[in-house]
Amino acid sequence: MLLAFNKPFNVLCQFTDRSSPPRRTLAEFVAQPNVYPAGRLDYDSEGLLLLTDDGKLAQRLTDPKFKVEKTYLVQVEGEPSDVQLSQLRKSVLLNDGPTLPARATRLAGMPDWLWPRDPPVRLRKSVPDAFIELTIREGRNRQVRRMTAAVDLPTLRLVRMRIGNVALAGLAPGATRVETTAP
């Protein structure tokens, strides 16, 4: 079984939390028993998370050697220049080594399909913000945030839109959908 889940902001990618006070977890949203996240999405990120009961599928989705593409909508502080986008496309040097080349595209504005975030993103009136679409084939810890920071475009909001051929499209925050084909 493969479930697509639209993870809301400030929800852990696990079913339990031992912290005090406890944070929101997948248990609040996913009723299907015996499925587990295939990969992670940071607590402060939103969007597509795949859950499965198939260990081989989970490994194929998460093992870097398979280079499954993941596409993100990234709201950044600042206006991305051609030079910054080119840096993201070529490779960015992070503290754990260079990234693989990525696809990076500046968007004209906030997409129509994007839901409001609760709480809203804090914006500064004197600093513009912009949206980029970024596709990577790795899955390092907080990689997209570190990549945009490395090119002086701090991430304000991060929404994963696609993993392989499974898209977030039409899935409301907190909702799940059974997928019939694996990415």
Notes on the structure:
The protein has 183 residues and is α+β, with helices and mostly antiparallel strands. The chain has two domains: 1-63 and 168-183, 2-Layer Sandwich (Alpha-Beta Plaits), CATH 3.30.70; 69-163, Alpha-L RNA-binding motif (Alpha-Beta Plaits, 2-Layer Sandwich), CATH 3.30.70. Helices cover 14% and strands 29% of the residues. The chain is built from three helices and eleven strands, in the order βββαβαββββαβββ. The strands form two sheets. Strands 1, 2, 3, 4, 7, 8, 9, 10 and 11 form a nine-stranded mixed β-sheet that branches. The radius of gyration is 16 Å and the shape is globular. It starts with a strand and ends in a 5-residue tail after the last strand. The mean pLDDT is 94.
